[in-house]
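Reminder: ligand-aware prediction takes two inputs, not one.
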Amino acid sequence: MVRAQDVHKSFGHVEVLKGIDLEVKPGEVFCLIGPSGSGKSTFLRCINHLEKINAGRLYVDGELVGYRQQGDKLYELRDREVAMKRRDIGMVFQRFNLFPHMTAVENVMEAPVQVKGANRAQARERAMQLLERVGLADRAGHYPSQLSGGQQQRVAIARALAMDPKLMLFDEPTSALDPELVGDVLDVMRDLAESGMTMVVVTHEMGFAREVGDSLVFMDDGVVVESGHPRDVLTNPQHERTQSFLSKVL
Ligand code: ATP
Ligand code: MG
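Here is what comes back for the chain with adenosine-5'-triphosphate:
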């Protein structure tokens, strides 16, 4: 579903991704861990067309991200083409980013109506189903300010799902939450994983990574240091850098 081959990304003279190689298989929960500044968010943003890579190849669902290939030449995609591709990828951030002037159900139905031109009544019905799925059917009429952080984050997940993405990206979805609210959000993510969704999850929740993850990558300083099954990497890390990181977070 995602294939990175020697992906490089720089901001000015600073190289943040220094040749990332990895593969996320369809239906997999792929966890990404690593210290602050190692390039995890940047990599997610590249997958989602929010950043353009400088070198290497990045594919989502078999298609190049950001470019069209003709013969051996690459052409940058136009904004409209990028927008079309971004529809297929859901992203959930650390901060919930809901529209504050819209209720929960309006937040969830917004993109299908505005971007896909969906019928409002149908979009609302679908949004209600999604809110039910994340355990918030009874909060549909609440505004974000009337919801807890965990509830807002679950609305954000429902909103991303409303576009029927083939891939969901999560960037530390629980790290801004009070500890007692983390579990509900992780439960929703666990259900989503069980439904077969392909998920790339940047997280500090090692319990989630171990129980739900199918693969885990430890990134440091813009490179993949170590990867494998979460259980193996977390209990028996091979590299000194992985060991040192895990000793601080576990
Ligand atoms: P954290 O765990 O703190 O979220 P991260 O692994 O997600 O860290 P990134 O946010 O990807 O790290 O940042 C990697 C590096 O790239 C950092 O040094 C950051 O300062 C730099 N960086 C990120 N975005 C930009 C930008 N738009 N312009 C310049 N530098 C940037
Ligand atoms: Mg980050």
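The mean pLDDT is 95. Residues 98-164 form one domain. We will return to this case in the review session.
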